[in-house]
Every structure is written in structure tokens, then in C-alpha cells.
Amino acid sequence: MNRSLDDEALQNKLESVAHYFELGTLLSARRAGGYANTTYFVTTDKGKYVIKWFLPTKREKLLHEVLYLQWLHSYGFPAASYIQAPHGACIYQKADETAVVMKKLPGHHPYPTKEVNKRIGSTLALLHTLPTQTLPRKNSWLEKAYLPEALEIVKSQLSAGDLQPILQEYEQVRDFDPTHFPQTIVHGDLVPHNCLFEGLELSAVLDWEEVCIGAAVQDFAVCILNFCFSPQGFDRELYYAFYESYTRVRPLSKQERSVIERAVKYMGITGVVAFLVQLGVNYPDEHQPAYQFYWRLGLDQWTLRA
Question: Do residues 198 and 274 share a domain?
């Protein structure tokens, strides 16, 4: 196999997954990212694929994710889904190893523009209008209990100086309760690298690990964080493009409109804490710039009001 990977054990794992899904002979592979879960782009004599390994503790969550993806496909939503093996299974399991495969799809990850944000807004709104009956409850970082519980983990790992600004921002949003707002299917991590565009069209939404039933306004807030801020700060033109395209498909309730700013800050500080729980507490110096995005964006001083 012509590859950038010289670890024989890893090669055997990749070939085992390729054999299970009948992907063909492995020709090359390269790591595509991931920390808790790892992802590889692979090429075989049959095509190009993405192989993703999950931690053993994520198996039940993955099973629920598959159910959600099947539901989304039944409604024609452009969710990138996993390949089924010839016998019908779409999850590879061997000892404590769990993996899934998807075809490497065409397209590019977008940079936020008004046109891009219009597509993001209308697609997210469509997701939030889909029915939710029969879908199972699924754990996610959007749950009400997640932030206070994760914060307790962070408290035991960070110094008082590093912890103080996080706690200060948490106090501003701790009374935000996601269960008080309309509940829909939510993606939970709709960021540019989880979207594929072909031209100006959104062709696929990737990475549904955090999908669940949750507050639509949280999903809306995550998109504001990731599509409406630039290095220069909050971009109102990008925001209005996103907001108007979303509300043409799914109008926000008065209650949702009243908490947009708080929801953005809540999801922002939740993102900081989630990042620290997954990575930062183990590699604080290496990842410090990443988990400080909240302050880099100026969210501690930001207001939605003009």
C-alpha cells in the first residue's frame, strides 16, 4: 500500500475495515484529524472513502446517530450517511474497536459569505421543521445538565487564574435553560468544516455525532458563532443573511428571538468547557489558543443589539 502511514497495526486495522465493507484493495491512507475519535481518508481500487474510529464508550451514541441519519434520509435531508456492509450493518465492531465508513463526497468546505449563510440558514431551518416522533433520546453537549457537570471536571484541572474568566462568563448564562424552548432535531455542531458546498449549493452536512432532540435556538446560536463572526468581530451582514433565510422557512418564536444573544454566549462558553474536557485539560499549553476563542471573538463584551 502506497501510504503516509508506516504503522503496521494501523494498516491492518484499515484493511480489516475495508474488507468488512468490501471497499476494495487499500492503496493509500492519511489521517484527516480527530482527537477523541480518529478519521482517515483512504483510497482503494474502488474509490475514495472516509474511515472514522470511535471510542468504545461511544458505541451506544453511535447506534442512535445511525437511527437519526436514517430518519433524515427518509425526508430527503442532505445528511452524509454511513456505508452499509453487504450484510446490512453500517458499524464495524471488533473487540474494543468501533468504526464507520462513508464515501468521500465531492465539494468544498465553505468560507462564510452572505450567499453561504443564506444556504446554511434555510437548511438549518428545514432540519428544525422535521418531525421527531419515534426518535430516541440521545446524549449531547446541548443537554441542560452538560455544562454544569463538565464545568466541575474543568474546575479540578485548571488553575484559579485560568478558571476565573470561564466562571465569570458562566455566571452570566447559568440560568439559561434549553428545555424551556421549542425542541427539534438539532445537529449540534454545524460549523464550516461540517458542510460541503458544490458551487453555491450546500450539498451535504457532515458529522452528526451530536445530533439529538434539543432546543432549536441552541443550534441557531452555534451557527451564529461559526458563520457570523470574522477576525474583525461580529458581521451583521452575515448575520442578517443567515437570520432572514432561516426565518423564511421557520419563523422564530417571540421567546426564541428574546434569547438569541444569551444562547450565543451560552453555547460559546459551553464550547470552551467542552473543549477543555476533551483536550485542554490534558494539553493545556498546546490547545490554549483554541479554547480561548470566546474572548478572541470578543463574546464577553458582545451584544446583538446595534
Answer: yes
